[in-house]
Amino acid sequence: MRNICSLILAALLCAVAVAGCSSAKGSKGSDNAATEVADSARADTVAIVFSADSALAMVKAQCDFGPRVPGTEAHRRCGDFLASRLEACGANVINQRATLTAFDGTRLPARNIIGEFAAADSSSRILLLAHWDCRPWADSDPDPSRRKEPVMGANDAASGVAVLLELARVLQAHTPPVGIDILFVDAEDWGNHNDDRSWALGSQHWAKNPHRKGYRPQFGILLDMVGAPGAQFAKEYFSVAYAPSVVRDVWTAALKSGYGSYFTARDGGGVTDDHVFVCAAGIPCIDIIDNRPDSENGFFPGWHTTADTPDCIDPATLKAVGQTLVNLIYNQY
Q: Is the full-model pTM beyond 0.85?
């Protein structure tokens, strides 16, 4: 994935979007309002249920293809599967293909997959995204002999995609009040820890070449590593800096839904992730990402290891994230 606290370059990347992102409603100071909502509080909400079991099945379905490393058969087949699932849920699907160059010179056959829900010309839209590729090598594995093996990516990739696939089913069953675009970005995890720009190649390409000319949703929400037991979703630095009102709304929705133990009031470090490049394109975007300051790598224990398998996924965490998004979409907009 990417380094925590790599602030300098990411701040430069976001600088071009300050005017656009700061135009979102609210302010950084108003973000504290979410912390005033008791964890046990319940809002008067539309009773639309997010199925954690269905999301877990989608995690396993992706992993059944094998590690989704760009250029492999598993990657190709899984891409077809994701596109077909979105189509089956009634989305208008756009495949954005490009050959991207990794930091080591490898040419990556990348595929961003977009699913549009509700009218494509809706004046009010929300972007939800997750990366779907896998790390080509388990460079953080505790066993040095396994560090050249690809990562299965059950949490670091498949969990966010699975939540959005289950959300797509919900969107088909219940027409949303705003247009929703689901974006599965590719080539996120073929990066070098010494080079921030080497990460998130698919989102960098999409930011420069949006699937629709002049595309400007209200905001974006990125899901990354949203399935591990004991997940802690702190308020990521760049999310608060460039989309404070979105952080406030999402964390308030989580607290009202009873998931305050996951969506903590703690401020997190900066993460070079897909949302940084979305912000740089002028779209306020936040990152819901499992951030653990007490762990050795800052993330969940299986990050970039061969242990990132479906066995490490907790349906309760998928539920916390998915139900929060459902309640946000259907009860706030």
A: yes
